[in-house]
């Protein structure tokens, strides 16, 4: 599926960035679900979320966590990046200041982990997100995606577990790449918060 068939909010829509992303994301999820001929109940069940919660997401009234976004994308058989708003006119230069970019919780639990969307250029097949993890040893649950993921640890200490493959502890400046299809989860080591960049390259 390509993003051509997925509609965006009108230009006169919400000016607030969070509202815009939420509405656009909801429309894209609804369009992808309709294309797959899935009922709202079927998609919610397969993604392990409640139907009322999915209804709120599709209506743009709430933002799903990164974990929920990956689950929905897997059931819909598309890349998570295809659900994020596309740039109307992709530019070769894209600047995001330190206080810019939409913040999205990593999971529905209060684990102190948030993701900042730095680039959602689905048309180029890659997304870049910054994660700031303040507390809770484990971040969310096991998750998987399409394509390939690269984790670059900016600060702190983080252990990445790949199901049935082992675990790797990263220090500041370390990077780990792995197929998105390998179920994985992250664990904070020590008491210091961890900051990392996740680059997701979708399958072509």
Q: Total number of helical segments?
A: 4
**How many separate domains make up the residues?**
2
Helices and strands, in order, run as: HHHHEEEEEEEEEE
Mean pLDDT: 79
Give the C-level CATH assignment of the largest domain: Mainly Beta
Largest sheet: 6 strands, antiparallel
DSSP strand (E) fraction? 25-35%
**Structural classification:** alpha+beta
CA-atom Rg in angstroms: 17 Å
Q: How is the largest sheet built, in terms of strand order? A: 1-2-3-10-5-8
Task: Give the uncertain stretches in residue-range form.
Answer: 1-15
CATH superfamily of the largest domain: Jelly Rolls
> In percent, how helical is the residue content?
10-25%
| CATH T-level topology of the largest domain | Jelly Rolls
Distance between the termini: 11 Å
CATH architecture of the largest domain: Sandwich
Morphology: globular
Number of strands: 10
């Amino acid at each position: 599926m390509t993003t051509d068939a997925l509609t965006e909010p009108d230009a006169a829509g919400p000016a607030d960035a969070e509202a815009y992303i939420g509405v656009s994301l909801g429309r894209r999820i609804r369009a992808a679900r309709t294309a797959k001929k899935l009922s709202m109940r079927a998609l919610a069940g397969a993604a392990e979320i409640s139907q009322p919660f999915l209804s709120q997401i599709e209506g743009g009234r709430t933002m799903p966590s990164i974990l929920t976004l990956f689950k929905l994308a897997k059931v819909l058989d598309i890349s998570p990046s295809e659900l994020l708003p596309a740039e109307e006119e992709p530019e070769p230069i894209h600047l995001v200041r330190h206080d810019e970019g939409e913040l999205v919780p990593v999971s529905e639990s209060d684990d102190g982990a948030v993701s900042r969307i730095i680039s959602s250029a689905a048309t180029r097949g890659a997304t870049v997100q910054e994660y700031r993890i303040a507390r809770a040893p484990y971040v969310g649950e096991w998750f998987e995606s399409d394509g390939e993921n690269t984790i670059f640890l900016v600060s702190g200490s983080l252990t990445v577990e790949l199901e049935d493959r082992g675990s790797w502890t990263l220090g500041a400046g370390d990077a780990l790449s792995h197929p998105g299809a390998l179920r994985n989860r992250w664990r904070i080591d020590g008491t210091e918060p961890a900051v990392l960049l996740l680059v997701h390259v979708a399958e072509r």
